[in-house]
Write a structure and sequence with these properties.
This protein is mainly α. The chain has one domain (8-148). Helix content is 76%, strand content 4%. It is built from five helices and two strands, in the order H-H-H-E-E-H-H. The chain has helices spanning 8-31, 38-58, 63-79, 92-109, 113-148; strands spanning 83-85, 88-90. It has a two-stranded antiparallel sheet. A hairpin with a 2-residue loop joins strand 1 and strand 2. The longest helix has 36 residues, at 113-148. The radius of gyration is 19 Å and the shape is elongated.
């Protein structure tokens, strides 16, 4: 086996970046009382970063396969956040946030810090802005359907 391509210091820095960005995403989720918060978001981000760092550590040259494994694995875990009760499905935003958080961690692990930061900021902003917008649209639609007497 060849010597690692990433120094111990760089490994720790990339992992720390993934952890901090995962915490930032998790803070927004925790603040809004969602099921995936600080703890899970930081672990998902750090786990993805460690798998990404594995490529450089082993000098395997399998970056795309590692990224594909992260996508699949986290997609499976995120599926556990999706709940169905009758015709109502909940947890899709939480699952998507978890999946996107893994991408942030992978970017940090591969050394793309700026892109990881941009991804984390985008996730937090989208969750903060789009949720109230979705609620407002739903309320407007329900109000309109209630006045029309149209049930579908």
């Amino acid at each position: 086996m060849k010597s690692p391509q990433v120094s111990a210091w760089e490994f720790v820095v990339r992992l720390a970046i993934a952890a901090v960005l995962g915490l930032a995403i998790g803070f927004e989720r925790q603040w809004r009382q969602r099921s995936v918060g600080l703890h899970t978001s930081s672990l998902v981000s750090m786990g993805a970063a460690m798998f990404a760092l594995l490529d450089d550590t082993l000098d395997a040259g399998d970056t795309t396969r590692i990224a594909a494994g992260i996508v699949t694995g986290v997609g499976f875990i995120a599926g556990g956040a999706i709940l169905r009760s009758g015709i109502t499905v909940t947890g899709l935003t939480t699952a998507a946030t978890m999946w996107a958080t893994a991408a942030v961690g992978a970017l940090a692990g591969f050394g793309f810090w700026r892109q990881a930061l941009a991804g984390a900021v985008s996730i937090v902003l989208f969750n903060l802005v789009l949720q109230p917008l979705a609620v407002a649209i739903d309320a407007k639609t329900q109000h309109r359907h209630g006045q029309d007497g149209d049930s579908g």
